[in-house]
UniProtKB/TrEMBL annotation, chain A:
The chain crosses the membrane at residues 7-26, 38-56, 63-84, 90-111, 123-142, 162-184, 217-235, 294-313. Pfam families: BPD_transp_2 (PF02653). This is ABC sugar (Ribose) transporter, inner membrane subunit. Keywords: Cell membrane, Hydrolase, Membrane, Transmembrane, Transmembrane helix. It is found in: Cell membrane. It is a multi-pass membrane protein. Its main location: membrane. GO terms for cellular component: plasma membrane. One of its GO terms (molecular function) is transmembrane transporter activity. Its EC number is 3.6.3.17.
């Protein structure tokens, strides 16, 4: 019993240790401004990773989310720029843009999910394909350059990323709310139970009268919508999107989910663990930038070691617990 | 592979020639600009020299680029190749075999790993890129001033630039607080700059070394409300940045060029090799110039995506 508890708390312990290390290396680490920065930055990957937790728990995978985010950011910016002359520079236009992002995300998720469930193609292959498609589309739409919001719309939209209630900015609030809802959904709803059931054995789930295809489709739609939500708070940050937006986000999201204790083969999902995973990854980045401990050439290596280490530790604890 | 045909063959009496152009695809602002300039140049030269045919291909990685070049030799029978190697090492052997087949070879920007293959080498000046920026810092900051640097993607090209910059400010008493990789990416530069702002209470200036990164840096500075404390120098000549220099933005006093239009110089010179008696072989290094509010209009291309 004690062992199992430690296994569950593993990622949390790691997070606390990282925070202590950061604080020890540079007291500015715990300054409100730095905490706001790190949490707000984590929100994009965080929102996507919460959705990814459901997809992975159901036994699926989505490699297209980074490209999807870039593409959605591109069409959102284009939509806002195109609408502004007609609807005016006001929040109505921003809301329409947000609608484009959310609806676009839902649609993109539906496409991925439909190809996986109806055409019965491996999730890895489908999303590898759509990853390339979304990335090319945004490069094409931007003509190889960068799509930028017009400056008056930019000024209006900007507070969505940079302000909030005191130092708790809107991205942080959105991330927190989505994380709590996600945890509740996974633990306390029929949808969550079905997702876990499908992930551990989809044939058994099918015999238990679970509509496997519908639930799978829904996980991809949920993920798509969350990518849309991430785009809504990403666009006001720099007001632009290009072919290099969101590169590697899919891998960061997947890594966060795994660090958080969700099994890559599906069956068990832990949304709060994912949140901890996201925070661990962005804190490592932040601490390395704040301290110049090692050559910046090695930042990626350190993150890689920690990802592998986190999973190794969990594997060992799991077998220990099962024994 | 996109074939841009010259239409009427032998219209001007000149001999029909095919020029293959192989460049990286438009995944970064600079490459987007380079692609745009390549297409514009082809369009313009097609009207001037209808008997010259251009074959343009863009590649997302080195191995695709090798395939493109092999296809050009095998199926398009090119007379000359203008190539911006995605990476030096893997492209050296394929370009060498083009040369051995008796074709004219123009190499752009990134050199091959073996000397003496190309007939013509056209490139920007990475050392000058760092030096010109460094000279500006030295001239406009007092001794004891504190600056931070954002580096590009870890490459030898990036090392050359940073070394030249450091050499230029050597002995000025300017202190470099930190240099981290922003990977020529706006989002990464934003993050790194946020962390710099947390880490250092005093920063007098930033060398962002790229205009995409400069935009991310400016956003991080404005979020921390420290705009008045520091100015930022980017690099390359992105139209938004050039516009702000024209408008005399105090935060962006100047920029250093590394023009994506260098591909145009390479294509034009390759064409002239066939169309004139002027000697075209050798090395053509395009200087890095300082864009100031006075001369900015000359560097402003509002139609380019970059």
């Amino acid at each position: 019993m004690k062992r199992i508890n430690f296994h569950v708390l593993g990622p949390l312990v790691a997070l606390v240790l990282l925070i202590l290390l950061g604080w020890f290396l540079n007291p500015a680490f715990l300054a409100p401004a730095n905490i706001t920065n790190v949490l707000a930055r984590s929100a994009f990957i965080g929102l996507i990773a919460v959705g990814m937790t459901f997809v992975i728990t159901s036994g699926g995978l989505d490699l297209s989310v980074g490209s999807m985010a870039a593409f959605l950011a591109g069409i959102t910016i284009m939509a806002i720029n195109a609408l502004a002359p007609y609807t005016g520079v006001n929040w109505g236009t921003v809301l329409l843009g947000m609608g484009v992002a959310l609806f676009g995300g839902l649609l993109a998720g539906t496409i991925n999910g439909t190809l996986i469930t109806k055409a019965r193609i491996e999730p890895f292959i489908v999303t590898l394909g759509t990853m390339g498609i979304f990335r090319s589309l945004v490069t094409w739409l931007a003509d190889g350059g960068t799509l930028s919001l017009t400056s008056d719309m930019r000024t209006l939209y900007r507070p969505v990323y940079y302000s909030g209630i005191g130092w708790i900015t809107w991205p942080i609030i959105t991330f927190a709310v989505v994380a709590i809802l996600g945890e509740l959904m996974m633990r306390h709803t029929r949808f969550g139970r079905y997702v876990e059931a499908i992930g551990s054995n989809d044939r058994v789930a099918r015999y238990s009268a679970v509509n496997v295809n519908r639930i799978k489709l829904m996980t991809y739609m949920l993920l798509g919508a969350l990518v849309g939500l991430a785009v809504i708070i990403y666009v006001p940050r720099l007001g632009s999107a290009s072919g290099s937006t969101g590169i590697g986000w899919e891998l960061e999201a997947i890594a966060s989910v795994i660090i958080g204790g969700t099994a890559l083969k599906g069956g068990t999902g832990r949304v709060w663990g994912t949140v901890v995973g996201v925070l661990i990854l962005s804190l490592i980045d932040n601490i390395l930038n704040l301290t110049s401990l090692v050559s910046p050439y090695l930042n990626g290596a350190i993150q890689g070691v920690i990802i592998v280490l986190a999973v190794v530790l969990q594997r060992e604890k799991r077998t220990a617990g099962e024994r | 592979m996109v074939g841009v045909s010259g239409g009427a063959v032998l219209a001007q009496g000149g001999e029909k020639k095919v020029i293959g152009i192989s460049i990286p695809s438009a995944t970064h602002g600079f490459m987007g600009g380079l692609n745009w300039h390549a297409q514009e140049t082809i369009k313009r030269l097609n009207t001037t020299y209808p008997h010259i045919e251009f074959v343009l291909s863009t590649a997302g990685d080195a191995s695709k680029q090798v395939n493109d070049i092999e296809d050009m030799i095998a199926t398009r029978n090119i007379d000359a190749l203008v190539v911006l190697p995605f990476e030096s090492e893997p492209l050296t052997a394929p370009v060498k075999s083009v040369k051995e087949a008796g074709k004219w070879v123009t190499v752009v920007d990134r050199g091959l790993s073996e000397e003496g293959i190309e007939d013509l080498y056209v490139a920007g000046d990475n050392t000058a890129f760092g030096r010109v920026a460094g000279d500006y810092f030295k001239a406009h900051l007092k001794s004891g001033a504190k600056i931070v640097i954002l580096r590009g993607i870890p490459t030898t090209l990036d090392n050359e630039r940073v070394e030249a910059f450091e050499k230029a400010i050597d002995g000025s008493g300017i202190e470099i607080l930190d240099k981290q990789h922003g990977n020529w990416n706006r989002d990464d530069a934003f993050k790194v700059m946020q962390d710099y702002l947390t880490k250092f209470p005093q920063i007098d200036a930033v060398w962002a070394a790229d205009d995409d990164m400069a935009l991310g840096v400016l956003e991080a500075i404005s979020a921390s409300k420290r705009e008045k404390e520091m100015w930022v120098i980017g690099g390359a000549g992105m139209k938004e940045i050039v516009k702000r220099i024209m408008d005399k933005d105090p935060q962006l006093p100047v920029d250093v060029t590394y023009p994506p239009a260098l591909i145009s110089s390479a294509i034009e010179m390759t064409v002239l090799n066939f169309e004139s008696d002027a000697p075209m072989s050798g090395r053509f290094i395009i200087g890095s110039r300082l864009i100031t509010p006075e001369n900015a209009a000359k560097f402003y291309f509002p139609d380019s995506p970059f």
